[in-house]
Design a protein that fits this description.
The protein has 270 residues and is an alpha/beta fold. The protein contains eight helices and twelve strands.
Length: 270
């Protein structure tokens, strides 16, 4: 069967793929992996290629795809399982998280700790609709709390610590009153923490920081990074279960899985 991911950078989906492959191998299903690198044209090419193999099923990241990809998948006649996100129109079956709710929770977490002026920072590519949904959830929560508008500091390039470092410096030079930063990923947040230390900005006293992903390094940073922990293992396992169920002609379904907001030193109450 084919599995299409949007990135292999910093092993964002490694745990999902490992759990998925382990479960499917027990049923003698081999996983063939394709990486779109958030490129919509690549997604079309790779999906068309995978479908030409006549796979037993296709699992693909997200529920938002280029129109041609959606057309190809709907017409394929094989089970399609969209994973990682459930916030939108589903082709067949979906297993993932509500990213809008995650963004709202990140914003609430900072607001509850006294932040008054918030920013969303990191890699924000046109094809990364999950990041866009988290940003929307944060923006709507801030607006509902009458705390003004969410400030954006984003670029369309791969997320890495150096990008976080660069963006937070630019952000604070233009908006020195920012006291809470929602990072698109933990990797971005690592660069943010580094830059804030270099700028003599105390965390969280001057600027509180929250990430997304709960990288293994997040608890080892100084200060330790508050973040959102997706249950990648369970997403992989439940996706495998959904694939096997659809192959057996069980009806399609959408399964929304829980996640955990992990509060650490970068947002501790002050």
């Amino acid at each position: 069967m084919g599995v299409v991911v949007t990135s292999l950078y910093h092993s964002e989906f490694a745990s999902i793929l490992d759990a998925l492959q382990s479960a499917l191998l027990k049923s003698n299903l081999q996983v063939m992996l394709a990486n779109t690198r958030y490129d919509p044209d690549q997604e079309v090419t790779l999906v068309r290629s995978i479908l030409s193999w006549r796979p037993a099923a296709v699992a693909i990241i997200g529920v938002d795809h280029p129109p041609k990809v959606t057309e190809l998948l709907r017409a394929s006649g094989v089970p399609i399982i969209e994973m990682w996100d459930v916030g939108g129109d589903v082709i067949d079956t979906a297993v993932g998280m509500d990213h809008t709710a995650i963004g709202a929770a990140q914003a609430r977490h900072l607001i509850e700790r006294g932040c008054k002026r918030l920013a969303f920072l990191g890699s924000m590519r046109d094809n990364d609709t999950r990041a866009q949904k988290r940003a929307k959830g944060a923006a709507d929560t801030i607006a509902a709390g009458r705390l003004g508008e969410l400030v954006f500091a984003t670029r369309q390039e791969a997320g890495k610590p150096d990008l976080g470092d660069l963006l937070v410096r630019e952000l604070l030079s233009k908006h020195p009153d920012i006291d809470g930063v929602i990072c698109n990923s933990d990797v971005i947040a690592f660069g943010v923490l580094r830059a804030l230390k270099d700028m003599d900005r105390r965390v969280p006293e001057d600027v509180a920081v929250i990430g997304f992903g709960d990288s293994e390094a997040s608890s080892c940073m100084t200060p330790s990074l508050s973040t959102v922990r997706p249950d990648r293992q369970r997403i992989g396992e439940k996706t495998a279960e959904a694939i096997l169920a659809r192959i057996e002609d069980e009806p399609p379904k959408t399964l929304t899985l829980d996640w955990e907001l992990v509060g650490r030193d970068s947002t501790r109450s002050i």
